[in-house]
Records
---
Amino acid sequence: MTKTNDDYDAPAVERRWQEFWEEIGLFEANEDSPKPKFYLLEMFPYPSGDLHVGHMKNYFIGDVLNRYKMMRGYEVLHPIGWDSFGLPAENAAIQRGVSPTAWTEENIATSRETLKRAGVGYDWRREIAACRPDYYIWTQWLFLKLYERGLAYRASGPANFCPSCNTVLANEQVVEGACYRCDTPVERRHLKQWYFKITAYADRLLDDLELIEKNWPRHVITLQRNWIGRSEGLTVRFPVVGGGDRHFDVFTTRGDTLYGVTFMALAPEHPAIAELTEGLPTKSDIETFCREAVKKKEVDRAAAATEKAGVFTGRYARNPLSGDEIPIWVADYVLISYGEGAVMGVPAHDQRDFLFARKYDIPVVPVIRAVDGELADEREMTEAFEDYGVMESSGPYSGLTSEEGNARLAEDGPKGGWGRPAVNYHLHDWLISRQRYWGAPIPIVHCAACGEIAVPYEELPVLLPPEDEVDFTPAERSPLASCREFIETTCPKCGGPAERDADTMDTYVDSSWYFLRYCDARNADAPWKPARVNFWMPVDQYVGGDEHAVSHLLYARFFQKFLADVGLVRDVEPFPLFFNQGMVKARVPKADGSSSMEVMSKSKGNTVAAGPFIAEHGADVARVYITFAGPPGKDMEWTEEGVGGTARWLGRVWRLVDGNIEGVRASVDAASLSAAERDLYVATHRTLKRVTDDLERLHFNTCVAFLMEFVNRLYAFENRKSPAFGYALHHLIKMLAPFAPHMAEELWRRAGHGDTVFREKWEEYDAEATAAALVTVVIQVNGKVRGRVDVAAGASEEEVFAAASADANVARHLEGKAVAKKILVPDKIFNIICR
RNA sequence: GCCGAAGUGGCGGAAUUGGUAGACGCGCUAGAUUCAGGAUCUAGUGAAGGUUUACUUCGUGCGGGUUCGAGUCCCGCCUUCGGCACCA
């Protein structure tokens, strides 16, 4: 492997400066600073213990900004902590009999050490860990706040259960029907669980996306919009024929197709099925169908999506508008979890209903025609007509457009008592209880006499019981449930015997408010002091992965809105500016000798461990390579060759600057420079401008490229004793600082400075120098490049034309032709159109 | 199926608003230096043609279009990668 330089022992130099920075408290953020604040945050990491270089990208992007913003004069809050509850610690306890606390703290220590060796600058005084009582006391405190407002509740309902993790999951944690963590297909189970009422904020979570839309990646905004999935329509009531006042509600976005309803379909899980079929000879068949349908969904969801199956219940409902009697079916394509768990079947205008109706010989009745067409003949239909159009055969609504009809129906429904406008969401309430040990206990007590009672605030935290008293053997209930010392308590209300809730909270609860805790991390009396949160918040730059687009980023927004409502925070959005960094890929060899680039992960065996890499090559190599290899927002490829190239370049920088260190100077007399020196001076300021502009745009890869270009230019510059050269080196050190902080700091010190370069001001570029007096204008003839001329900046069309005509090649192309038109883009391009 | 992102040399990638396509790096080639090197320095490197110097033609997934000028804008396709997937 390439060494940067024989004189430069990166690991030793880096260590020295890391200790120095810690000594002088370089990264400590202070609320009483006169500087403008900048809150920079990377997503709450799980302390995995063995960080690989893929993990580091996030932190390196953050730290480039951190150091740049410091040099730009900001008081930067750049904190770190650990999202340290969660299954791996508990699994370690099960598999190896180790203590989850000890195991986690050990991993935290390793992760912390790796980040420190990587030179990432954090205010370690604010370090937090979700698994420590001084943090989770406030997670519980926030649970109680939600509970007080009716936003935390326990209810029975269908839940996603992961049989491998032995716990339920939130909808957001089910990815393509499988557990997000272990990829096991989830099962639907009817269970009593704790929820946060995020749906109460659905509209605000949706509407406020407009506030952040411009400063978030578009796809993340789209994902959130789709996930919330607001849809407007009608709830229509269909009475059961001969069923007294029994009825079914259905949700539809297509009220205009109501006269085309030819059947009704209930989800197999619909609770009213049993009662509806009571006493009918078909009852047992229907029960069998429902059982099979529910099972089928679990086993094979993909197949169920194409082939629809159903069974007729033997009962009928009445269309409240047409008065028609329509058969009630149970159909496997109807979802219990959306709308009312029942749909009106309009085969003529809904493709799913159409397929279902054709399969079971249910009539198809078209009631919408295309605006410029005719009503379809049901016998000739091969698919549903799903577009809006004009209503026909629809009683008093015939002749209205779909839009008009829907508006009228929304008014008439409540008047006629058969329907009402309704809004449905794809978003469901957030299921937050987990049947696991390693999480924050839910601070609720169940009392036989008083029912569900909140643990009083002054009794928080509800501590996890000591690990040696808990049986971690996987079961379908929380390990806490079998720990008598934990469960048995007294009712805070009546004082009688009572039981604690045995479940713990989803770890996403922990990460929904951690960014607030950093503002006041050591507060023992409250989760935070509002003044402190209001000083630092909102987060000025959030950096993280888009895998959390509809989980953490949605939950945290929900928490922030709730906290704003109860006056604990000021801002309604926590992260007005979110940057989504790409992943690090590395080669995975295949059996046939070829290979592919895949995201670095332990399971693929293509990781490069961060600690050992840094110990061998130094952190600066890793930092510069990761920032240079590609735009920060896109995936990048980690290769040995790339690492070598970066190491080589840092060696070039070192030899160049250190070899001429005595000439480094902060200023130069611009007036006394020779032409060549003047050119170097201009190049220095042009580089400074380009690097500065691209730092602001987060285009770090091009910043490094510009620095490389600059270094190449400096190598080509012969007079190394020139003040212009020393001046260029001074600027190079400063521009290098955000990217290779250790080397820059070492060079800064060797150049004779006492303090850290990170307390120096970022240099301002000389606008006069960057706007050069002479510019190169490209000459085109009929749109093709035929030459280039150097002219004075701002040269007129006549001047450029005169210069262009003097160019032999241009003249050749103009020869014998008449100039028809001249287009000049000042200082850039001159296009001569001729015939 | 729906939504989103992206297709540029051998490779990773540059190119604010339409204005020199291929910056920078890797790799490769040649030379210098060195006891030697996978170290260092210098030069070259999109393709084709060319009196190998001028220079010319082609070239940013494909086909059209707008424009003096298109990687960039518009229309229609193709491919790849993500996300959601019976949402009524």
---
Amino acid sequence: MSTTTGVERKPLRADAQRNYDKIVETARAMFRERGADASLDEIAKRAGVGPGTLYRHFPTREALIDAVMRDWADRINADSDEAAASELPPREALSGWFSKFVENVGIYHGAAAKVMAAMDDPASPIYRKCQILVGANQKVLDSVRDKGALRDGVDAREVMRIVSGIATVVDQSGIGADDAEPMLAIVLDGILVDPSD
Amino acid sequence: MSTTTGVERKPLRADAQRNYDKIVETARAMFRERGADASLDEIAKRAGVGPGTLYRHFPTREALIDAVMRDWADRINADSDEAAASELPPREALSGWFSKFVENVGIYHGAAAKVMAAMDDPASPIYRKCQILVGANQKVLDSVRDKGALRDGVDAREVMRIVSGIATVVDQSGIGADDAEPMLAIVLDGILVDPSD
DNA sequence: ACCTGAACACCGTTCAAGT
DNA sequence: ACCTGAACACCGTTCAAGT
């Protein structure tokens, strides 16, 4: 069901492929320790390639972020599948799904803001991931709706906008991932028919 | 009641004061047309001062933003006073207050993100404005609580975090200010006892 | 077809020299 | 006490020269 969600890419020459992989691997490490705004120059340096090479493969920072987050979409899909099929009460299932998203998008500092910004920008390389995200959320919300627990008129895109906003707040201000919970609780209260379950 | 909320500042020499004012005035214009991340170098150039002068007055970009937003706090206080004293049904009063905030923080592109980031960072020059903001929100929420319309355990700071997150989403993605409404509606549904009013 | 690395433009920051 | 502007470090981006 979830083969790599990546776009089909024409095969690269051996050395180009090696450089491509090295860059992505290096970027992943750099993004993890310095955030998604880490210096591209230094990524190139650490990867042992010239800046032009990085540029050829990734014309924009977002393109690189997109490549680094390639597996991310798979995780999102897995998490949403699990939440949608969950036997847990609607509130717990939804809460878990939101929490996992905040956690997942939080591993790269600054990534939440990029995702949030790309949410309505089809020109962004990350836009595709946002579509996947909204689709996944739709799936989870539908499962809750089937149980009659969702308020009328709740839109998956709007919900994802708010939740990515919350993820960004958590990421940008120094607060911990646990501090997302009270905010998510407000959203849950806002979209569920009965706050109790 | 609302004299300028600014901090007391020791008087500057005449020329220094003139430069200070010119810089703030220029920055305000630049921020308005190019956003809160506009080049400080060009602001200095347009203001007719050396970069060192801008730096002396505003050691950090946030300090400059803070100065540019000096009147902003007064508007926030005025809006919250009006909302707290409003005869409108709780939902309308709250909704108007949130909307005005999103609108106000949206006049400088990128400002919402700065406010959001400073919300829990006492070291930031903008932190003081966030405190004012949370205080103002507290005031409005209390007035709603007095009418028995607010759910138990709703915290003014949490609410402000979410709303500033929404303001940031609206600002960063290309969507219009009107598109904040459906998201704010979810928050309202989440913090009010009875969604109807 | 792909890579290198010098070159460029821009930006924030510092500081010695001036008044 | 305050300002100027040259100087520096850094960063993203381009492109001619190489293989």
